[in-house]
Amino acid sequence: MSVWLTDEQQLIKDSAERLVQNDYTIEARQKLIDSEEGFSRENWATFAELGWLGLPFKEEHGGFGGTGVDMAVLMEALGKGLVVEPFASSVILAGTALDLAGGPLAERLLPEMIAGERLLAFAHSEPKSRFNLNDVAVTAATDGDGFKINGQKMLVYHGGSADSLIVSARTSGAQRDRDGITLFVLDRAAEGVSVRGHQTVDGLRAAEVTFTDVRVGADAILGVKDKGLSIIEAVVDRACVFFAAEASGAMEQAVALTVDYTKERKQFGRPLSSFQALQHKMADMYSAHQFSRALTYRAAALLDDCSPAERAEAAAAVKVKCGQSAKLVGEEAIQLHGGMGMTADMPIGHYFKRLTMINALFGNAQYHLKRYTAMKSE
Description:
The chain is an alpha+beta fold. The protein is 52% helix and 15% strand.
């Protein structure tokens, strides 16, 4: 599928693909994964210099006012290199929450993040919430003129490296009520915040964050008290689309790696690529990727001007198709590479792991198919 890009979008694509080609071999990526933080601060500074950290944000916050398609172009290019820097956690998740909420916190923190001086993390997922965004057990009880936060968050991407955490907590209502969820901005080093970092299956870094009587003032509230769910839903819907764009880049590379491998690997004196049955498998992989890519760019274009309901439908549709395509491409790629495809020395295994993780983030294909069906039947 051809995507017609503006001159600016082509520059974004070229600069990102150039960085991936020059700096993101599998060997170089593995060294970053094995480092203390799991990514390169030098690369992060380069991201800031290139303007990527400010791409989706308003100009008044120091950003560039980029479109959804601009972001999809960048994420697709980063997906080709399996980039491990905290772009998604800091920009797409936490940064978007700040941008949507606005106010003094956004005015102070977004310029610092865009300049590469402050890392952010989005702490919303909980051990028992699964994919239900309004299932929030972490509490923020009124304490004088402020709040005391207690509870635990899980899978906080780059939570161990972040300077500030955007945390969802229940300020009223029952655990699964839609109302009563409030977003707070906390310093990671604040008293009572405990962070336990770990590596995810695809090599990225995440953390479990525990809050024990963490005291914050009313000025730590992001947006409107008790009305944080609408921001969370908007953040997650946008993230679903942009993660699908990242998956598109990863799928493209997985298809290319598989085609190249079957041309080199021989069986019965002939290249694997000469066998018609395997040609059919690779054609299916290519078609699945192209279909997913087309739907992703359509959804990315809708993000700039759509209602919450339209945004939710587009995000769910993308997650369904992206999940199905990523599963097909990943599994067929591994099968065509044979058992060695899952070894750390073969690049295809790294792409398979990342595609598997993207499929699970914020709801897998099965979950979003039910969600999409429910929305269309209303």
